[in-house]
């Protein structure tokens, strides 16, 4: 049996040999470098738009894309996420058809909504992090600021399947993307709430 002092020395030696990327605040590591694929079944963006009477809300679902964390810059990441307009839903078929038609998203010509960020700061769990990026809708690309918080990290249960869970929010003006139809009755401002899960691939 190994004496207690020897076991303590062995444990400290093993910990010292494990490399770790710094967290966004310089503390213990939150992220392992690598490519994290979006979970398209669990990830969605909820939108809400006020109107003269009530409002409109729904979800963008089934995205594709990833977060890439380079070992050489473990406190930064590249993000590239696409949401198919076809999978957008409000729960009402007639409203879905209107939004996907040529007065709004014009799905036939612009089938995806895309968010990208390059060299973005990684979100921590203590407070929200602002990620500057670009949002492309209806063929128009505009700079946006996404407020994100890391809400959970699941360590590897087997090699390469660590999970990251983020929540976030931002607001955009739809007229900036060529979708100003009906602004006398429906607000130009669209509030977006993000719930995203990524698995290291």
From TrEMBL:
Residues 1-22 form the signal peptide. Pfam families: YceI (PF04264). Residues 35-199 form the Lipid/polyisoprenoid-binding YceI-like domain. InterPro entries: Lipid/polyisoprenoid-bd_YceI (IPR007372), TTHA0802/YceI-like_sf (IPR036761). Transmembrane segments: none annotated. Keywords: Signal. This is Polyisoprenoid-binding protein YceI. It comes from Sphingobium scionense.
